[in-house]
Amino acid sequence: MNIIQSVEVMRQSTPLKKPFKTALRTVYKTESIIVRIQTNDGRVGWGEAPATIVITGDSLDSIHSAILHTFTPILIGKSLLAYERILQEIHQSMIGSSSAKAAVDMAVYDLVAQNCGLPLYQFLGGYKDQIETDFTVSVNSPKEMGEDAIRYVQEGFNVLKIKVGKDNLQEDIERIMEIRRCVGNSVRIRIDANQGWGVKDAIRTIRRMEDLGLDIELVEQPVKAFDIEGLKMVTDHVETPIMADESVFSPIQAFEVLKNRAADLINIKLMKSGGIFKAQIINQIAEEFGVACMMGSMIESRVAVTAAAHFAASKKNITRFDFDAPLMMLQDIVVGGVQYDGRVMTFPRAAGLGIVDVVHSQSVVGS
């Protein structure tokens, strides 16, 4: 019958190998809520939501509360054969809480794909059967960032995402110059300012990098998320492609950015969109505008990254992949799921997400 029987909510915390630093925050460990949804035929679907307060506004407590008190009553007793109705109700049941919605969404899609006997990426479209991730260089001194970049390239990564937007503009330029000097010209470099620049500063800095021949593939979210006019001004006044990230949570926001030609690319994240259900709409809108998307992630485990990777692989229009977070963790808490061979990510043949179990969860905080 595929009826949802139980919803279990757990908390996990795992240290990172090295602090993850951006213009917005410094992270020392992954902290997330793990969701386990079971149906009456014994199938289990997995989901995850990390606490990323400075971006989504969601804390561990708010995620837990939303799932336990708002979403669980909607889920219990529902048939997965009507998963469209379930996900519509989840999205309409409360404003915000995009991370909590994403955790439930990915667990529902996991179960639906299992019911169909297909890996999720095939259920959603099956465009690719493997993808390659970049690796992120945290914002530190130019010297330390150069050393980190060399290590990641030696580990096999040929696309680096460089965090900037902290301290001053000249140091940001020096950071990129040092990294380019260290890794040479064969490695692709992406820059993520995480809203750290003003509009005029962004234009001046990007133009300076262009003049220096630093060969930047794209610049992600150079200005404040709310400043769509400023984002458009940057896009219009530089040659380097500009990607919107924090400016786009919802399909409506994606439409506004695309309609105004405020960015050249869109970064989709399940924690912003509220899961695959809405992420598909964002990608489809972008594709109709002729704008490619990147699929990104927060600092999350292989549970959420597996779901995001399945979605990313299913769609032609998603051409870039930022799924390095699990590689930053000291422990891998996931059995099954997407696998890494250096930068190459492959999918299990099992139906759904292919996740067998999630271990090292610290405590059960609700059920």
UniProtKB/TrEMBL annotation:
**Classification via SMART domains:** MR_MLE (SM00922)
Superkingdom to which the source organism belongs: Bacteria
The keyword Lyase belongs to this UniProt entry's keyword annotation = no
Presence of keyword NADP: no
Q: How is the cofactor bound?
A: Binds 1 Mg(2+) ion per subunit.
Residue stretches making up the Mandelate racemase/muconate lactonizing enzyme C-terminal domain: 142-241
Q: Which UniProt keywords apply?
A: Isomerase, Magnesium, Metal-binding
Cofactor(s) for this UniProt protein: Mg(2+)
Entry's InterPro entries? Dipeptide_epimerase, Enolase-like_C_sf, Enolase-like_N, Enolase_C-like, Mandelate_racemase_C, Mandelate_racemase_N_dom
What is the top EC class of this enzyme, as a single word?
A: isomerase
Enzyme Commission number(s) of this protein: 5.1.1.-
UniProt xrefs under PANTHER family:
O-SUCCINYLBENZOATE SYNTHASE, O-SUCCINYLBENZOATE SYNTHASE-RELATED
> What family is this protein classified in?
Belongs to the mandelate racemase/muconate lactonizing enzyme family.
- Protein name, entry field: Dipeptide epimerase
